[in-house]
């Protein structure tokens, strides 16, 4: 009896030795990860099978480093459960992972929304919850994450408006595509320093792309607005985006002429305006773009192809 008791206690003793309770960060992480494990309703790949016991740094998908503000303490700095096929929800206890810098959850089946407690994650730099079943309004907690640079919420069921202050954040990349957002591109879009901006397959309302888009001239490399219900005009200012390499405006309801200023986008490699209602002549300036590899303009009402 006593021997059995000792055997059961052994794993506890050895882990207590490795992570003495003097590390409150890992204790909080333990609480958070156990709560999460309970909120996971299906785990076909048995990813959380080893999520037990206090050695959280050994859990599959959990990565520890020395804490920034106390290098003698280990802390959970990253969680990568990409392609985990996990079902369930994101519990409020995730707010206890206050040293988390990376949270990668793409290609799972998490439902619900991002808990407001995530605002505790002041070091969070990359947040990727793409390809899940999250829903509700725009997850506004992301607006409160001061370190956030990479935000990927594509392929979910978020709906409603996109808050304009999103474009005031110092992000490097923003993926909103394949949701159910209905929004007009706000005037302050030009404040956004992103290099990649993907709006595709949402519903964009409003009349014109703001002229302030020209303010993104030094940073924007990719702009993808395909299948977004755009009926609006594309202002000539777009031609000032001289760093842009990929512009996809296909499968919208764009009308009128294609602006000749597109010929000023000297870095352009891919240009797709197919499946719109554009008319007139294709500006010859497009053919002079030095890096253009693929220009797709089928399914429009262009009267004349550019002469080379
Ligand atoms: C899941 O993983 C744990 C720990 O890695 C293991 O003990 C358990 O047998 C696994 N379960 C299944 C169903 O494979
Ligand atoms: C847990 O991680 C420690 C290092 O932190 C390592 O020495 C040990 O082998 C790991 N245990 C298991 C079961 O993976
Ligand atoms: C936020 O972090 C603090 C400090 O780490 C912690 O005490 C608190 O419980 C956390 N709040 C939430 C909602 O997780
Ligand atoms: C469209 O382009 C044609 C020349 O291709 C020009 O005559 C016409 O004025 C343009 N229309 C608009 C609305 O810019
Ligand atoms: C050019 O782009 C179109 C649509 O963007 C794509 O379908 C096609 O495969 C591309 N062609 C080449 C040669 O890359």
From TrEMBL:
GO BP term, pick one: cell wall organization
UniProt keyword terms in alphabetical order: Cell wall, Cell wall biogenesis/degradation, Glycoprotein, Hydroxylation, Leucine-rich repeat, Membrane, Repeat, Secreted, Signal, Transmembrane, Transmembrane helix
Leucine-rich repeat-containing N-terminal plant-type domain segment(s): 32-65
InterPro entries for the chain: Leu-rich_rpt, Leu-rich_rpt_typical-subtyp, LRR_dom_sf, LRR_extensin-like_regulator, LRR_N_plant-typ
Pfam family, one: LRR_1
Record-annotated membrane-spanning stretches: none
Keyword field contains Secreted: yes
Signal sequence range: 1-16
Residue stretches in coiled coil: none
Keyword Signal on entry: yes
Location within or outside the cell: Secreted, Cell wall
Entries under Gene3D superfamilies matching the protein: Ribonuclease Inhibitor (3.80.10.10)
Protein's recorded name: Cell wall hydroxyproline-rich glycoprotein
């Amino acid at each position: 009896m006593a021997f059995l008791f000792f055997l059961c206690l052994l794993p506890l003793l050895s882990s207590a030795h490795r992570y003495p309770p003097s590390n409150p960060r890992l204790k909080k992480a333990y609480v958070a990860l156990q709560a999460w494990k309970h909120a996971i309703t299906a785990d076909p790949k048995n990813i959380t099978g080893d999520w037990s016991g206090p050695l959280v740094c050994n859990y599959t998908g959990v990565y520890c480093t020395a804490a920034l503000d106390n290098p003698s303490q280990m802390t959970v700095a990253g969680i990568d459960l990409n392609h985990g096929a996990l079902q369930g929800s994101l519990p409020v206890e995730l707010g206890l992972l206050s040293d988390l810098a990376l949270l990668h959850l793409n290609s799972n089946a998490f439902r619900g929304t991002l808990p407001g407690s995530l605002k505790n994650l002041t070091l969070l730099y990359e947040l990727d919850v793409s390809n899940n079943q999250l829903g509700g309004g725009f997850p506004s907690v992301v607006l409160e994450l001061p370190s956030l640079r990479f935000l990927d919420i594509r392929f979910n069921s978020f709906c409603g408006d996109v808050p304009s202050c999103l474009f005031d954040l110092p992000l490097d990349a923003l993926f909103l595509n394949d949701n159910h957002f209905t929004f007009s591109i706000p005037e302050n879009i030009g404040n956004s320093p992103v290099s990649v901006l993907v709006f595709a397959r949402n519903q964009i309302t409003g009349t014109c792309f703001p002229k302030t888009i020209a303010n993104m001239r030094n940073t924007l490399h990719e702009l993808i607005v395909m299948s977004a219900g755009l009926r609006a005009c594309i202002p000539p200012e777009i031609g000032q985006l001289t760093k842009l390499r990929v512009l996809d405006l296909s499968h919208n309801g764009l009308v009128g002429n294609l602006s000749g200023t597109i010929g000023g986008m000297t870095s352009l490699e891919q240009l797709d305006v197919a499946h719109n209602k554009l008319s007139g002549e294709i500006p010859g300036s497009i053919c002079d773009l030095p890096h253009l590899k693929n220009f797709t303009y089928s399914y429009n009402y262009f009267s004349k192809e550019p002469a080379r």
